Amino acid sequence: MEYKPAFKYGAISKMMIVIIIFCLLCLVIGFNIIFPRFPTPGLRIILNTTQEPEQLNEKTILRQINNEDSRLKFSARLNVQTKTSWGAPIMWEKMFDNRDYDQLHIKLKSSVALTVFAVGRYLDVYLKNFLTSAEQHFMLGLPVKYYVFTDTPEKVPSIDLAPQRSMKVIQVEKHSRWQDISMMRMKEISEIIESEIRHSFQYVFCFDVDQEFKGRFGSEALGDSVALLHAHYYNLPKHRFTYDRNPKSKAFMYTGDFYYHAAIFGGFWKNVKNITDECLENIMEDKRNGVEALWHDESHLNKYFWLHKPTKLLSPEYCWDRTLPAQDIKIIRLTWAEKYYAELRDH
């Protein structure tokens, strides 16, 4: 018997067309309903690019610096200590790529205030070389302002400064003893941070004037709280460190982590102000008690960094004494100038 389908092929084709059109209508209606609540991925990307960038507050900046520090090549220098017991890096040549830190700090819009004291004959002998060498090597590519403290502002030499770099001269009293000049700089630094630096600069670095830059002293040195290892003590046992061991002094220390050099210290302005305020308070208490710390402000600075660990340490490459054997020194970034203590200091 011959089989006859219930529907003709033409009818089936028309039915399929109707079904397809119906499905397409449903998709269009559904898409219009869903689209306002769930934008397409491409649209989300466009919207995200119009958002405000992440605010560069202190925590954000520190997180990015810490991320960069975590990529340091700590094993690149096997004969020296490259990290403290609390995890702070000790910056030595070959541990980092200059370009990585420079790019980071340009992105972060980092800016640096440098303080230096040139009182009495120290101005005549050291200041010009200090400033001209700083222009060649210190934080190149970043905004920098030199704050020069002196008792004779009219004698400060004129220096050609690069773009984004400036200088301010601040007159201070000349004390009768060099020890008082050394210790009272803490007061002057604290006051200029409070009145001016905090409003314009993220970082502060404090230098002695009897030094000369010889190589890059760059953005890798920037950090939350920065201390310098003393060239004469970095490779000696702790019992050789010249801490103040007078129990009557606020600088008294029986032992410590390292011996730090007061020729350089720095960090975020808040931390530098904390350093200077606490050191000044302890210096003044010692004076009221008729006590003077063994190495003056350096003794108090060592006590501060014993109680408040620095987050970054600079190796002696950042302040080297050329009279020492230099087997560990790959580059001299800053060097001690020749000392003329007998001629320059008022005893």
From TrEMBL:
The chain crosses the membrane at residues 12-35. It comes from the Eukaryota. The active site is at E298. It is a single-pass type II membrane protein. UDP-N-acetyl-alpha-D-galactosamine binds at F117, A118, V119, Y122, D208, V209, D210. GO terms for molecular function: hexosyltransferase activity; metal ion binding. Mn(2+) binds at D208, D210. Keywords: Glycosyltransferase, Manganese, Membrane, Metal-binding, Signal-anchor, Transferase, Transmembrane, Transmembrane helix. Its cofactor is Mn(2+). The keyword S-adenosyl-L-methionine does not apply. An alpha-L-fucosyl-(1->2)-beta-D-galactosyl derivative binds at H230, T242, E298, D321. GO terms for cellular component: Golgi apparatus; membrane; vesicle. SUPFAM superfamilies: Nucleotide-diphospho-sugar transferases (SSF53448). It is found in: Membrane. GO terms for biological process: carbohydrate metabolic process. Belongs to the glycosyltransferase 6 family. This is N-acetyllactosaminide alpha-1,3-galactosyltransferase-like. It comes from Cynoglossus semilaevis (Tongue sole).
